[in-house]
Amino acid sequence: MATSTYFLLASFLALLASQVIASDPSPLQDFCVADKHSPVRVNGFVCKDPMAVNADDFFMAANLDKPRDTKTSKVGSNVTLVNVMKLPGLNTLGISLARIDYAPLGENPPHTHPRATEILTVLEGTLYVGFVTSNTDNGNKLFTKVLNKGDVFVFPQGLIHFQFNPVHDKPAVALAALSSQNPGVITIANAVFGSKPPISDDVLAKAFQVQKGTIDWLQAQFWENNHY
């Protein structure tokens, strides 16, 4: 009986270990530059022929030192993302970054990154930031902090978070690092009220406990995507 129990336990642990390894494998080569022209579809991108790789595959003249236009944004922010779609050398490396410009009283509205944790560093100005926990018996807890130049804040993967510039006469700038080559973004208001085709107003009226007319008005608004 003891031998049988030991065998079952060992088998379970081996299976568990194999699943863990399979879900997040270590790189098997120095790099895997994305071949975005390949017809093959995989989770990520097929590797470009290493003999055809050059330094430009790992380089992007992103001009992240230059301010971005926030005047045309309804939310007063502009996100400049550097991911694998723009920098092929990021493929399989599990990182990306973004510069975020905030107008006075501008915000990066509540959103989530389904595939990445984010660490934000304030380069200039002041930001009020926060994230909300997932559903618990005690509700959804909000964690907030006021950040100044040089401060850092972490937003856990998949949780709704935001940044707001509370200063009425000065812009702010932040740099965000993300733990995915393609973190993705779901801006809450855009996804809920600006989906195409729209979510049924019956569904949303019940979810938000409001009249359908309120939902119809919200769905008629222009929901801007500030993540470029």
UniProtKB/TrEMBL annotation:
One Pfam family, short name: Cupin_1
Top-level taxon of origin: Eukaryota
Signal sequence annotation: 1-22
UniProt GO MF annotations: manganese ion binding
Keyword Transmembrane (UniProt):
no
The residues covered by the Cupin type-1 domain are 62-216
InterPro entries the UniProt entry points to: Cupin_1, Germin, Germin_Mn-BS, RmlC-like_jellyroll, RmlC_Cupin_sf
Listed GO cellular component terms?
A: apoplast
* Locations listed in the record: Secreted, Extracellular space, Apoplast
| Binding residues annotated for Mn(2+), in chain numbering | 111, 113, 118, 161
Residues at which oxalate binds: 108, 113, 118
The family annotation for this protein states: Belongs to the germin family.
Protein name (record) = Germin-like protein
What are the leading ranks of the lineage?
Answer: Eukaryota, Viridiplantae, Streptophyta, Embryophyta, Tracheophyta
